[in-house]
Amino acid sequence: MVEIGSNTRLRVSPFYEATIQDGATAFSPYNSMLMPVSYGDPTAEYKRLTSQVSQWDVSVQRQVELRGPDAAYLAQLLSVRDISNCFIGQGKYVPMCDHRGVLINDPVLLKLDKDKFWFSIADNNILMWARAIGAERGLDVEIFEPDVSPMAVQGPHAEDVVASIFGDWVRELKFFWFADAQVSDIPMKIARSGYSKQGGFELYLMDGSRGVDLWNIVREAGQPWGIGPGNPNPVERIESGLLSYGGDTDDMTNPFEVRLDRYVDLDVCDDVVGIKVLRQIHADGVARHQLGVILDDSAPGPGHAVWYDVMSAGKKIGSMTNGGWSPKLERFIGFVLISRDFSIGDTIDVGKNGSLIPGTLCDLPFV
Ligand code: THG
After folding, report:
1. What is the pTM of this model?
2. Which of 25, 46, 79, 186 has the most crowded CB, counting CB atoms within 10 A?
3. Distance between CA atoms of 19 and 268, rounded to whole angstroms?
4. Is residue 123 lining ligand 1, measured as CB closer than 6 Å?
5. Most ligand 1 atoms within 8 A of CB, residue of 59, 92, 93, 175 to mutate
6. How many angstroms separate the alpha carbon of residue 14 from the centre of ligand 1?
7. Is any ligand 1 atom within 6 A of the Cβ of residue 70?
């Protein structure tokens, strides 16, 4: 038994005690916080998500707030997707790149007002990045982390659960739009979003002292629909083709390699970080691409390195970046990031710890 020393470098989620109470058995580091990644029964967690409803502590998706006269301009500089058509009350999935055109995050951007935005971030320090770019460009904008912690409610009955708490109006919320809401004096924004393809909402808790209260309200309201705890599901998200920044990307990955083409607008203004390089990369074409793989057998055990080699005729052609047993396909599936010389229908081998497992490349998403 190893204990994690509590300290100022590791922030505790407002839902932490509730997730422990609900039986969390494993946590994973993310944005200098811990995310519950298992409640001890992966099969049940997958089933709840795909046939009932599941509640997740995703407060590790920390918010970076931009506020002030130049907030909209800075939000655009940091996003390689055009956000000029984003309405107040709307969210957008916006890849972020560095000056090399390398993907450094894939946040959800929420436009709260004409001069107020949140980036809801994946695992990388965007607070520091936004402050650096804002200062270098001499912009008039405040950049800070607000007291906001998302909790996801995902699954085919998520809408029933959320409507039973907040009212039927939530059923009218459009995909990625959000609105203010309150229950038991707990302030929040409710968005129709979440890291699954099972449908659902994210409740952006706006008072960190009320995390356990909110968790328990959702837990109780969800009983008729069989709610239980879960987390961004490692298999459902692969079946659904959702990218994991940092999990499926490395320090060289650009958005075109990982199927984010439709979130890159090459005609945004030249000031957008990385856009000029992306235009060039787009014109030249990429050397690698992301595909699915269906294996003939289970993948070998994880070992210490995370990515598996993808081999063809004894040569390494790329990596399998993540994988797992798919209940829907009843096969072991995964994402590969491989040379463009190989494409859908080709057979390859996935290697690790000396063993080679044959597999076939396929299009994404799986389901
Ligand atoms: N919710 C919130 N913040 C987040 C995530 C989230 N921050 C980190 C991480 N997840 C960012 N990554 C993603 C990846 C995919 C999606 C959202 C966040 C997603 N994609 C849809 C798709 O690919 O089909 C829709 C995108 C679109 O077309 O607009 O939902 O989950 N708050």
Report:
1. 0.96
2. 79
3. 42
4. no
5. 93
6. 22
7. no
